[in-house]
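DATA SHEET
Item: assembly model
Revision: 1
Owner: S.N.
Input lines:
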Amino acid sequence: MTPKPSPSGEFELIERYFAPLSRGFPGAYGLLDDAAVISPAPKNELVVKTDVIVGGIDFLPDDPADLVARKGLRVNLSDLAAKGAVPRAYLLDLILPNTVQEEWIAGFAAGLSQDQAEYGVHLIGGDMSSTSGPITIAVTAFGEAPIGRIIRRGGAQAGDTVFVTGTIGDAALGLSVLRAALPALDAASAAYLVDRYHLPRPRVALGPQLIGIATAGLDVSDGLVADLRHICSVSGLSAVTEARWVPLSPAACTAIAGDPQRLAIALTGGDDYEILFTAPPGAEARVAELSRSSGVPITPIGRMVVSSEADQSGVVVLDDLGQALGFASEGWTHFSDSP
Amino acid sequence: MTPKPSPSGEFELIERYFAPLSRGFPGAYGLLDDAAVISPAPKNELVVKTDVIVGGIDFLPDDPADLVARKGLRVNLSDLAAKGAVPRAYLLDLILPNTVQEEWIAGFAAGLSQDQAEYGVHLIGGDMSSTSGPITIAVTAFGEAPIGRIIRRGGAQAGDTVFVTGTIGDAALGLSVLRAALPALDAASAAYLVDRYHLPRPRVALGPQLIGIATAGLDVSDGLVADLRHICSVSGLSAVTEARWVPLSPAACTAIAGDPQRLAIALTGGDDYEILFTAPPGAEARVAELSRSSGVPITPIGRMVVSSEADQSGVVVLDDLGQALGFASEGWTHFSDSP
C-alpha cells in the first residue's frame, strides 16, 4: 500500500531470478503459490533453522552480491550440519533498499544457484520487501535427520573429549585484513584469510556422520570460546582446553606470529562455521577414521569436566606455560580485547 | 564482531521473553539449541510460508509493539489458512535498531503470547539482529495439511464461482483514516476500520474446512482485484465480478457513501486477510452450510470464465450499470488511483 517494489516488478524479478532456483523441488510449486510443502522421509524429522545477515554488520556493503547470497545460505547450512542434518531446502526473505539495482539481484541469484548445485538444496519460497535500511537477508533452512537423533548442545558428559573441525580464526583475521589491521601480512596469507571471511565452508557432508559419535555439538559462529561455553552451559559442565591445541591455518599462524595478541581474535572472533563437538573418551579412533575418510581435519582440543562451585559452565583455556587465560563474557583479560 | 547486541544481552532477552513462548513444543528445545525439529502427523505434510513486515511500510512507526507482533504472525497464519493448513509453529527473525527499548520487546512478546493462545501455535526458533534501518520482522510459519491436498492458486475451472470471506476494504480504509484522509467519518466507523488495519483476522478455523470444496484459493493481501488476478493467471482463466457483490462492512459503506471513489481503495487496497476461493457450480449449498456452521460470512462475488485472446488472465469488474471498470496493473482507470 505504501512504497513497496511495484507488484509487477517484484513478480517479474521472482520469475526471472528466483523461480528457476525452485526447479527440481515439486513442493515449491515453481514459487507460483503462497506456500510450499515439505515432508521428511519416513523415520526422519525436519530440522529447521533461521539466520539473518544484515549489511554493515554481517557483511560489508561492497561485498559482491553472489558472496553475500552464498554466505546467507551457508551460515544456515552450517547449523544444520552441526546438528547432523542433511540439508534439503530453504526459504529466502530478501529485504532491499530501493537503491539496489537488478544487476545486484542477478548476482545474488547466481550465487544461490552455484551453492544449490554444491549442496543439493532448493529454494522453495520467500518474500521480497523494500526497506529504508541496509540490505537484510533472512534464510530459513530445512534439513532432515533420523527422529530424535539430532546432535544437541546439552548432551556432553564429563570426561568427553572436545573436537573441532578444520581451522579456527581465519574469518576473524580475514575481517582484520579487510579493515587494514594486518598491513604487514603477505598477500597470499591475506587473500586466504579474506576468502575464509567471505565464504564459510559448512561441513555439510561430515555433519550427519557425527550422529552416533558426538554427544553434543554446534557450529562455531560466535567464536570458539563462546560456543564452547554454550555447550558447557546447556550440558551443565565446564571445559578445559589449551590454546596451542587449537588448529590454525598456516595463514593464521603467520598473522599471529606477527603479533601474538592476534590469537585472541582467532579464539573469540567467530564466523568460523566449523563444527565443535564432544565425544566419549573411547571415540578417538572413530573420529580419526572419520577424519581420514571425509578428508576433514578433526582435532581434539580439550576435555569436558565437572564444574566447580566457583566456575559454573566455564571454559578454561591454558597458555603454553599451563596458566589459565582469564576469560570474561566481554572478552579476554589476558589478551587484547580488540578484534 | 561488529555492533551486534552484546551476546549476553541477546541471550538474556531470548531467555526472558521468547523461551517461554516455546513451552509445550518439545522440538523447540526451549530455544536452547541451534535448530528445532518438526514433523507432520502421518498422512500430512508440512506447509511453510514466510512473510516480512517492515516498519514504515507494513506498519507505522508508532504502532503498539503487541499489535506489530500479532500482525507479523497473523499475515503468515492467513496464508496457511487460505491453503487449508492447520497452523502449528513459527520461527521469528527480529531485526531491531539499537534505539528499541526492552519495554518494546516485552510488549512484542506479550502480543505473540496472546496470539499463540488464540491460534494454538508455538515459537520454535529464530534470530535476533541489529540494524541501522527500521524494525523488520520476518516470520516463517509451519502448518500441516493432508498430503497433496493444499488449496492451490492454479486449480480454478471455467464456470467455478468466486467466493470471499468476511468483508473487503476495511484495512485499506483504516489506513486512510490513520493518514487523516477520512476526516468526516464518524468516530465509531473510523475506530472499526483502524482496528481492522492493525489486526488481521486470519480465517484459521475455516481454511482447513475448504479442502475438498475449493478448487483454488489464497488470502487477500495485495488487494481483491490483484489477488483474483493471481488465481486467474495461474489457472489460465479470467474472472467476472460486480462491484456491488463485494461484501463491505457497515463502516466501509459509510466511508464509501462519503465519496464513491473510495470503493477503489476497498477493492484494490489490500491487507484484508480474508480468503478468496473458487468452487464448482454445485458447491453453493456446501459453502452456505460451511458459512453457517463456522459463523464466517462467505459471499459469492463472481465467476471464472475462459479468457478471450485479447484479455488473458483478466479480472473484469462491472459497475452498477453493467459497465466494465477498466483495470490496469497499476490501478483502476475508472476510479481515482489514490489509496
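QC remark: Chain B has nine helices and 14 strands.
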